[in-house]
């Protein structure tokens, strides 16, 4: 059976781009793959975090994943720091990656420019992401378009390691959706919507009050003319709304463009579609949120299952590298 792995960082409240670009595909993947999903809390540490907020966000992110339809009977759902194999393989892969290769990562350039404090972890984080994926003999990784370069690096590291030390890792494929793979900020439609970006009016949070969601969409930046057309370069604002509507309805953005003569009508339709997508998620989230002990138990079972898979893969890497095995005491 195909093995699917993906993760999400508890760096802020989940936004619509996370949902449309990645999370809804995770849910669908449960039908035909062995699925493993992870709240990647170690990745959140690349920027300073408030400890109590990080703890709350990690638990609530797991609850949100359950609310969107991740089924713990069919998927392995766990928190990255509960499985220490991730950190160990990350070091091995940092030593497999070249400095220049990491320096070329565009997300590092974006996130380090103008940052007050740039941690070494922000630089090496793609090696940890590669470790997350390679630890599970992953075949397919459903991610948004912004992760394409990191996925390519994970593949390169797997191939380099296999070439140097013998066949150890499965080389994964990225699975990037055609629609919704890059949801843009509603106020700045040439930059991606992001959970830790300071753009409250441009970012739709999955747990935003539904009236606020509709208001943000109605106030989205469009363009000066009135033509409803799917053209990402010339009309980024309108095209973003068409892409969002398309991801929620399943119709193509080009076909949807023909249905609306005015921006106002497109915004109304988009707001309705997003609100109806979020409503059931919010209702289920409230149920999981009322039972933190239940969520903790699900995560503990998930971590135990994850370790059963990750342990032997890490042992394979250690042996092939030539690390001395521990002898009997
Ligand atoms: N705007 C987006 N459109 C489509 N997909 C997106 N993803 C993120 N933003 C968009 C996808 O969501 C998954 C989880 O993302 P992540 O938490 O690992 O980190 P990220 O990609 O860096 O997302 P954010 O929201 O922008 O977080 P911050 O602000 O903390 O960096 C990934 O599959 C991602 O592609």
UniProtKB/TrEMBL annotation:
GO terms for biological process: tryptophanyl-tRNA aminoacylation. GO terms for cellular component: cytosol; mitochondrion. The keyword Glycoprotein does not apply. It is found in: Mitochondrion. Keywords: Aminoacyl-tRNA synthetase, ATP-binding, Ligase, Nucleotide-binding, Protein biosynthesis. InterPro entries: aa-tRNA-synth_Ic, Rossmann-like_a/b/a_fold, Trp-tRNA-ligase, Trp-tRNA-ligase_bac-type, Trp-tRNA_synthetase. It catalyses: tRNA(Trp) + L-tryptophan + ATP = L-tryptophyl-tRNA(Trp) + AMP + diphosphate + H(+). Gene3D superfamilies: HUPs, Tyrosyl-Transfer RNA Synthetase. The keyword Ligase applies. One of its GO terms (molecular function) is tryptophan-tRNA ligase activity. Its EC number is 6.1.1.2. CDD domains: TrpRS_core. Belongs to the class-I aminoacyl-tRNA synthetase family. This is tryptophan--tRNA ligase. It comes from freshwater metagenome.
């Amino acid at each position: 059976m195909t093995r699917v792995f993906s993760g999400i960082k508890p760096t802020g409240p989940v936004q619509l781009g996370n949902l449309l670009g990645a999370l809804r595909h995770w849910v669908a993947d449960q039908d035909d793959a062995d699925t493993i999903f992870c709240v990647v809390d170690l990745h959140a540490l690349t920027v300073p975090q408030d400890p109590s907020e990080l703890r709350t966000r990690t638990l609530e992110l797991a609850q949100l994943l359950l609310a969107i339809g991740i089924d713990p009977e069919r998927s392995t759902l766990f928190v990255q720091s509960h499985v220490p194999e991730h950190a160990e393989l990350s070091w091995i892969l940092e030593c497999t990656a070249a400095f220049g290769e990491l320096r070329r990562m565009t997300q590092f350039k974006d996130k380090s420019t103008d940052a007050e404090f740039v941690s070494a972890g922000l630089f090496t984080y793609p090696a940890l992401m590669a470790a997350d994926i390679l630890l599970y003999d992953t075949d397919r990784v459903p991610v948004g378009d912004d992760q394409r370069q990191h996925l390519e690096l994970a593949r390169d590291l797997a191939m380099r390691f296999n070439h140097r030390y013998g066949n150890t890792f499965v080389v994964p494929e990225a699975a990037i959706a055609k629609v919704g793979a890059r949801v843009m900020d509603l106020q700045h439609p040439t930059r991606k919507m992001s959970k830790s970006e300071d753009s409250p009016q441009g970012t739709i949070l999955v747990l935003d009050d539904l009236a606020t969601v509709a208001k943000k969409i109605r106030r989205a930046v469009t363009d000066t003319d009135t033509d409803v057309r799917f053209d990402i370069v010339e009309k980024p604002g309108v095209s973003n709304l068409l892409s969002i509507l398309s991801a929620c309805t399943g119709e193509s953005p080009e076909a949807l463009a023909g249905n609306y003569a005015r921006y106002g009508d497109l915004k109304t339709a988009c707001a309705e579609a997003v609100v109806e997508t979020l409503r059931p998620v919010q209702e289920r989230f409230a149920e999981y949120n009322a039972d933190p002990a239940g969520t903790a138990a699900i995560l503990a079972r998930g971590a135990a299952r994850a370790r059963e898979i990750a342990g032997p893969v890490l042992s394979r890497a250690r042996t092939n590298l030539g690390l001395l095995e521990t002898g009997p005491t």
